[in-house]
Amino acid sequence: MRRTMRGALVVSAAATALGGLAAATASAKDETYNLSGKLTSGVEVPKPSAPAGAGGTFTGTLTGKKLSFTLTFKGLSGAAIAGHIHMGKKGAAGPVALPFCPPKCKSPIKGTFTVKGSLRDAIERGGAYVNLHTQKNPGGEIRAQIVSKED
What is the pLDDT of residues 78-124, one digit of tens each? Predict the structure, then answer.
């Protein structure tokens, strides 16, 4: 019986320590990150044929899994037909992780979304980008890597 009690105490202590670690990890995931990005055609992959003045700005916050942002743009080759946040490092194209337009592809675009943990982690690590697509450039006309800074 003594061994069983001792084993139960060890298991209980380990569970308490792991519970504290889980709580610390959970609170770290609820920290707020300020997000920004400057959209240009020069960083889009593959490189589009876009007007020289095409550009925009992306600003937002990420708290836990709640993403709120504003995206402004101007000077595109035509109407924006789609906008997305993609998973992907700088200089590489990646899959769509969060479509945010259509239906409203007019500047400014504002949105609040609950994101998956994998997208949240990618945004925190600089592994996500935002872009807008036009009829002339269906693969993307302007893009910005999302930069995140802890608040």
Answer: 999 999 999 999 999 999 999 999 888 999 999 999 999 999 999 99
Phi, psi for residue 124 in degrees, rounded to 5? -60, -30
Domain region containing 43: 31-150
Residue with tokens 């709580």: 23
State how many domains the chain has: 2
User: Rounded to whole angstroms, how far apart are CA atoms 133 and 38?
Assistant: 15
Residues 70 and 103 in one domain: yes
Per-residue confidence (pLDDT) for residue 29, from 0 to 100: 61
d(C-alpha 122, C-alpha 20), whole Å: 25
Judgement on whether residues 58 and 24 belong to the same structural domain of the protein: no
